[in-house]
Amino acid sequence: VIKRIINSSQLLTLRGEGLGIIRDGGLAIRDGRIIDVGTTEEILKKFPEGEVIDAKGSLLLPGFVDPHTHLVFAGTREDEFDLRLKGVSYKEIAERGGGILSTVKATREASEDELFEIAWKRIREIISWGTTTLEIKSGYGLSLRDELKILRVIKRLRDKSKIDIVPTFLGAHSFPEEIEKGDYIKIILEEMIPEVARNGLARFCDVFCENFVFNYEESKQILLAGRSQGLLPKIHGDEIEHSGGARLASEIRAVSCDHLLYSTEEDLIKMRDNGVIAVLLPATSLFLKSRKKPLVDFMRRIGLTIALGSDYNPGSSMIYQMPIVISLGCLIYGLTIEEAIRGATINGAKAIKMEDEIGSLESGKKADILILDAQNYKHIPYQFGRNLIRTVIKKGEVIYEKTC
Ligand SMILES: [Zn+2]
After folding, report:
1. Distance between CA atoms of residues 153 and 268, nearest Å
2. Rounded to the nearest 10 degrees, what angle do helices 144-160 and 100-109 cross at?
C-alpha cells in the first residue's frame, strides 16, 4: 500500500546543494522507501489512492542523523561538572584519575541487562527529538570483557530499536588504571580488534588521539590494525591540543575526523583532499566552555564537508537533542542555518557512510521523515531548546507522535 504525506508548508529534500526546498511539498512511500517527492498537487495526481498523512502546514525534513555518541554508560558525573565550573580543566580532571575512568568504573560494575535498560530509555527520548539514525561508540569498558559487553548491548539496542544504530569500537578511548599503556595497546591490537571483528560487533574503529591519551603513532597503529580487519577508521582529533589527529585522518583516509578545535588550515585542506568528513561537536564546546573554535569560515571557503554530532557522553556533553546541536552549531561555531541542518542530516549520513540510504528525501532512500510544528526551517535553531517535533517516521512507519 502507498502512503502519502502531503500539505507541508516546506519540504526540505536535502538533495544537491542547499536544503532543496519544495513549497507545499509532499511525498509518497512504499515498503518503507520513498518512491516520489514533489508538490502536494503532483503527489496526489500521481498517487490518487492510498493512506494519507496530512502535514497541515508543517515542516517536512529527513530524520536527524547523529554520527557521534557515547550513549552506553552507567553513572553520571555532575560533581566533575561542578568542579569544572569552579575552574578545574578537563585535562587536570583526567590526570587526577577522574573523567572517563570514573565512568569506566561504573560501567564495569553494571550488568549487561542494566546497561541495556539505561541506554534503551535514552534512545526513547532521543527519538522524540527526531533522531532516526544513531552512531554509538563503546569505550567505557577498557578491557576485553567490558568492551565486548558494551558492544553486545549496542547490538541488542540495534536488534530491538526501530531506528538505525551504527556501532563503533572505541577501546582506545583512554587506558585503564590497572595496566601500562603499552600493554593495553597490545590488548587492543591482539585481542579486542580481532574479537570485535570476528563477531561483527562494530562497523568503525575510533581512537581518542591526543598527546596525553593515544598519540599520533599509537593512534595510527590501532586504526590500521582495525582497518586490516574491516573496521573503518574514525578519529577524535585535535580536541584538546594540536596532536595530529586531523593529519592522521587524511593520511589513512579515515571516514571522519571529529572535534577539530586545534586543527590548522593545512590539516583541513588535506582532509578535504582525502574525502574526510569534518564532524563538529558544538555541545561539547558549550559544556567544556572551550574558547577555542574550529575554523568554520575556512572550512566553508575550501568546501570541506561539515557534519554535526551531539557527542552525548557523561563528561563533556549531556546533550543528545539534535535540534539543540543545530542551534549550537549556529550560535557557537558560526554555521549558517542551512549548513547546520545539512550537518545534522545528509552530511551526518556521510560521516557514517550511509548517505546512499538516509539523510535526504529522495526516491529510493529510506522513508525517515520528521514533521515539525514550524512554518519554515529557520525555526529549528531559532526556537532554542523547544521540541518542535510532531511526528517521527522511520522506514515509513510512525514511531513517535507528540501527545498534547
Ligand atoms: Zn566523542
Report:
1. 35
2. 70
> Given this model, what pLDDT does residue 50 score?
95
CA angle 382, 384, 390 (to 5 degrees): 90
Expressed in angstroms and rounded, the spacing between residue 389 Cα and the centre of ligand 1 is 26
| Helix 112-128 vs helix 144-160: crossing angle, to nearest 10 | 40
Output the CA 360–ligand 1 centroid distance in Å: 25
Give distance in angstroms: CA of 281 to centre of ligand 1: 8
Q: What is the distance in A from the centroid of ligand 1 to the CA of 219?
A: 15
Beta bridge partners of 62: 369
In angstroms, what is the span from residue 355 Cα to ligand 1's centroid?
21
Q: How far is the CA of 236 from the centre of ligand 1 (A)?
A: 6
Instruction: Identify residue 3 by its one-letter amino acid code.
Output: K
Distance of alpha carbon 267 from its chain centroid, rounded?
22
Between 83 and 148, name the one with better pLDDT.
Answer: 148
Cα–Cα dist 357/336, whole Å: 25
Those residues whose C-beta lies under 8 Å from the C-beta of residue 371, and which sit 6 or more positions away, are: 5, 8, 53, 55, 58, 59, 60, 389, 390, 391, 393
Quick check: pTM over 0.85? Answer: yes
Residue type (1 letter), 177: E
Distances (CA, A) of 60 to 11, 345, 386, 391: 5, 13, 17, 10
Q: Cell 518503507 belongs to which residue?
A: 32
